[in-house]
Amino acid sequence: MCMHKNYNKKEDDIMKSIKTRLIAIFAGLILVLSLGLGAVSVNIASKNLTKNVHKNLEEMAMKEAKCIRIICGAETGYIDGIAQNSIILDEKVSWEEKVNYLQKEAERTGHINFGFIDKNGKATVFNKEKESLYVNDLDYYKKAINGNRSTSDVFIDKFTGKPIIIFATPIRENGVIKGVFYGIRDGEFLSSIVSKFKYRKTGYSCIINNKGVSIGDRNKDLALKQHNFIEAAKENSDSQQLADIIKNKMIRREVGSGEYSYQGKEKIVGFAPIEDTPWIMAVGLESKEVFNSIYELRNLLILFSIIAVAIGIFITYMVSGSIAKPITLLTTNIEKVANYDLTFVQDETSKYLNRNDEIGKIASAVTVMQNNFKSLIKNVEEASNQVSVSSKEFTATSQQASNISEEIANTIEEIARGAASQAQDAEQGANSMEELGYLLEVEQAYLKELNIFADKVVELKNEGISTVGNLVQSSKDNREISNEISEVIVSSNESAKHIQKASEMIQSIAEQTNLLALNAAIESARAGEAGKGFAVVADEIRKLAEDSNKFTIEIKDIVTILTAKTGNAVLGMHKAEEIINSQNVLVMKTEEKFNGIADSIEKAKETIENLNVFSRKMENKKNEMLELVQNLSSIAEENASGTEEASASIEEQVVSVEEIATSSQHLAELAQNLNQLIMKFEI
């Protein structure tokens, strides 16, 4: 029962020692590699994603700035078209007729009203009250009176007290500027445009002027209240970062991007100036939305690391168990031999005898050793019994001659003791050398196992390189397909732009037709009864022109949306191409790492081969030393024999008595010792 407990304890110790080391080494290696590669991947992806987002926002800001410029250009173009109508300056047309015509036009197009500014800077609104004021100090008037179309900032109307925006154009008569004609839009005009902007979930856009004042924002209150971000930062430090970007970059009309914190949220903004205006377009989104994909990648890599470590521990546990179990069984049998127990049965270890590896060799050696010891002990036991019988006979004879040969026997005994001691020392040396040989064989067994593991690592390395090669080819195929899709989207975008240009031409023709119909109606009214039929036709033409203009605007809106979507698709394809290229670079780097690992493995195999050579040399040296010790043992035995021969030649007269006495005493002691030793073995 005690031996069974010791066996279980030692088995647990061996299993823990081998399994624990293997599990710790491989689990640590897998964990370090997984976390290292994951950290590098997340860092690179984060940098590339931030760079791409900044670039995309800059491009989006430039695109939106162009859209605002086109919208404002279309607005001033429309104002310019009305200004060319002779009714504006025709003194023969009454004020009421002008007001009725322009108010209907304002109602149709969504304007608040229209107005006229003379060369003295006096602005008069086309309404029944004929409200007027001087605006000769305002920038939009100065620019328009000098012959250029212009757009004002959002400002408070002195008549209504509400925010408005003005689109102005010079009005000419016979090529001479007579004043400025302008249209009044609600102050929410620009805010309504930017509110339609959609970019991801948290995307936004806004327009500020060159003083940092909001004139268009999805939060319309900021534009209506003419919120100044630079001034607001002086009172509230929460908007200081945004104010710095506006002051140092945006109002300097730079194209760029930046990051800031506002109202507790981290944001990224891209900006670009709107040409022909003092405005700047800004497009941004929350940083959290940008880095959601990075967070998902990080969590995925952590999960992958955990799974990889778990799989590695499981595989290592199974492999180490298959190695430790036979070693444990064989160790138990060897310990029994060390405790003089040769009764163990090889049932459990017999299945390892047919193995061709080191474990099979050890199992065979233990079996052979058990059988040899049994045979040896039986032979010694028989010899001991024979010696015991002979010693009794020699004792009877030696007693008769003991008085004669006592002194000679004592002398011979002392010499024999010295020779026996020398022989015993030589025998112990031989036993030690045999133990050293056993340890060297165990070391060679471990080296062979190490060779097997190294070959397995090389095989896994080759499979990894093959997998990376397939990944490189897949990346190339993906990039070619993306390029083909990008070309189709770009072609669709160009077609949409051609449609937009055609719709603008149709709209211009419809507006001119409308003006002609209006002039025809006025002329028919002057003709009285004779012009009624003509007036009906003119009215129908005007209605057709208005319908054409309406449908043209719808087409234009649809084309604008289509252009924006195809533009976003083009940007998305460019972004996908950049990601694919980045992925390609990472794959190539991974392939280089695999090659580096392969080189290291080859060097490790060379080192293992060197250890094998060194181990074989140690085995040879051990054999040489064992041979020397055995020679010493033979010499010691020869010395003992020579001592006996010398004693015989000195005492020729008592030679027969001494031989009998010495043999009797020696055989008696030897028989006794052999019997004691044999009793220790269990056969």
Sequence-ordered SSE layout with sheet pairings:
Layout lengths: L1 H82 L11 H15 L3 E6 L3 E4 L6 E3 L4 H7 L4 E2 L3 E2 L6 E11 L2 E11 L2 H7 L8 E5 L5 E4 L2 H5 L4 H7 L4 H9 L7 E7 L2 E9 L6 E7 H52 L19 H43 L1 H126 L4 H119 L4 H26 L3
Antiparallel strand pairs: 1-2, 1-7, 2-3, 4-6, 5-6, 6-7, 8-9, 8-12, 10-11, 11-12
Q: Describe it for me?
A:
The strands form two sheets. Strands 1, 2, 3, 4, 5, 6 and 7 form a seven-stranded antiparallel beta sheet that branches. A five-stranded antiparallel beta sheet has the order 9-8-12-11-10. It has a domain at 43-289: Beta-Lactamase (2-Layer Sandwich). The chain is rod-shaped and about 180 Å long. Residues 1-5 have low confidence and may be disordered. Helix content is 73%, strand content 10%. The protein has 683 residues and is of the alpha+beta class. It has helices at 2-83, 95-109, 139-145, 189-195, 220-224, 229-235, 240-248, 287-338, 358-400, 402-527, 532-650, 655-680, and strands spanning 113-118, 122-125, 132-134, 150-151, 155-156, 163-173, 176-186, 204-208, 214-217, 256-262, 265-273, 280-286. The protein starts with a helix and ends with a helix. α9 packs antiparallel against α12. A hairpin with a 2-residue loop joins β10 and β11 (265-273). It has twelve helices and twelve strands.
